[in-house]
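Design a sequence for this backbone.
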């Protein structure tokens, strides 16, 4: 196995699946969110809890519940991009949507989430018009 680059990776958005299996996600029609330039925050983080038995003096720390982390997608803003248009629609909705991350090697990660932000980043005269999309997962991650 070898490490791969991010070149060729993409993310897609579609309606919520009928269920939460890889097969259900495979049956959803999705649209690529075009002009993606970065993707970060995918995964889960566990909370911890400490217990201190008096006899040992050693604090015992164990993981407890977890949170699926907020996904941040950096994009070049293109008003005519169908995926970005669907993200804008999702931003004004309380519904969960399907998200599919497709890596260059063909691996896929599926999840449902709500679009909680689509902001323009600004810049200067020599830069590009860019933005940041934030997605809060409403399901676990499913690898395909």
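Sequence:
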């Amino acid at each position: 196995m070898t490490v791969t680059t991010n070149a060729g990776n993409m993310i897609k958005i579609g309606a919520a699946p009928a269920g939460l299996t890889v097969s259900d996600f495979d049956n959803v029609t999705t649209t690529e969110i075009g002009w993606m330039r970065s993707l970060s925050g995918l995964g889960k983080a566990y909370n911890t809890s400490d217990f201190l038995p008096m006899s040992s003096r050693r604090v015992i720390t164990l993981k407890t519940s977890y949170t699926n982390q907020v996904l941040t997608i950096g994009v070049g803003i293109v008003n005519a991009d169908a995926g970005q248009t669907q993200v804008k629609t999702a931003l004004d909705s309380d519904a969960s949507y399907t998200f599919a991350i497709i890596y260059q090697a063909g691996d896929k990660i599926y999840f449902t989430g709500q679009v909680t932000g689509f902001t323009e980043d600004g810049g200067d005269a020599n830069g590009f018009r860019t933005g940041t999309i934030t997605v809060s997962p409403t399901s676990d991650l499913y690898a395909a």
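The helical segments are 22-26, 82-91.
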